């Protein structure tokens, strides 16, 4: 029942279904600059009940409007006209994106109540540091960071709407298809301003299976046959990409990257302001999203620690939005999960333990890999661990500052350090595709830089005199860790690098000097 679902934590699938349904009843309106909110809502109500709405800034003011009934959209569309093609010719594709202008703007001299605008990006790091200095503990600093960076309800609605608008194109060819977000948009670890990863799904949700059993005939569609699934994927994405490029209102910079390991179409969706990556259904990626969703829901410390470590890594140039030899956010997130599995008692269960709890419905074998784990959060016993985030943050740096990366790998299935199967500097087992290392791209200098930064951070937290720093109005706790090191302490750094191969120290210190200027830029810009 609905009441029962609302009191317990929803499963990943329930949240997805609900959000996709919400998005289907939603439109996006570019509003006139002097807008009377009450007037707008009054007008919209003539087409049906408006269930929720919010305004945001995106080259002017936009409004996301969620109706209670899908039929209200058709009613509104009937009243909307096609733009007059005086200087431009238009592609007459009718979407759920509208522009409203006032018919007689002069008469609007009423004192406007200013609209509340929902923020769609997070504050710059320097502003964050000021806020952190006002907190009373590292733990509360970490929750402040989490609150500033995590996706808001409004931003999530906008992400699902972007998927739903792309789906309208896919449905022109494939009426049963859906477009769903995966990765950071749905796994509870998404940051404001991050891209939207979406995939096209053709799977009939099992509704046919029962009907097919009836009658004396085996019946199937005649469909075009191609030598490989990859080729089919490439062709479908190529056509959908062309569609978005040629007909999609507000779809700009469409790039088809069809020869990648996972073929995709990149585009910028201007009405919602997102950078989007569209690929064809990847079941394992969805399982990873759900696994992280479960970990994120189990204990509030999980997300606070992940957001903190990722922000820390970004400030120190350990991660980068461009692909390369540095650690990815996904790898960092997995390292945090592993660390939480290693606490005593553990804060989150291992993947094998989640698999033990899996019911019949939770069984998933994908391409020969067992991707089964429990989806009902009520079946997972809460942890008995009571460590504060203050403790966990210091311990994280301590743990990885002294981890034997030469010998050991990180395995979330077992929650144990296991011998490395091959010699990559950093080896993190892919939780599902057991023969893959998700951090294969990381080279030795980048790993050593991570180790050095972790040691430096552990040391700063240990030696710190919080009261003194607060009196002196100096950044303390987490705030002190979000200021690039090495301004005045590259000699101190050298001492703490004793155990690290000297050939990389030089390149490391150089990259630190380089990174100070650029990483602050990046941290602020991203």
TrEMBL record:
GO terms for biological process: RNA 3'-end processing. Residues 138-296 form the Poly(A) RNA polymerase mitochondrial-like central palm domain. CDD domains: NT_PAP_TUTase. It comes from the Eukaryota. Keywords: Magnesium, Metal-binding, Transferase. One of its GO terms (molecular function) is poly(A) RNA polymerase activity. Residues 11-79 form the RL domain. InterPro entries: MTPAP-like_central, NT_sf, PAP_assoc, RL. SUPFAM superfamilies: Nucleotidyltransferase, PAP/OAS1 substrate-binding domain. Pfam families: MTPAP-like_central, PAP_assoc, RL. Residues 391-426 form the PAP-associated domain. GO terms for cellular component: mitochondrion. Its cofactor is Mn(2+); Mg(2+). Gene3D superfamilies: 1.10.1410.10, Beta Polymerase, domain 2. This is PAPD1 protein. The gene is Mtpap.
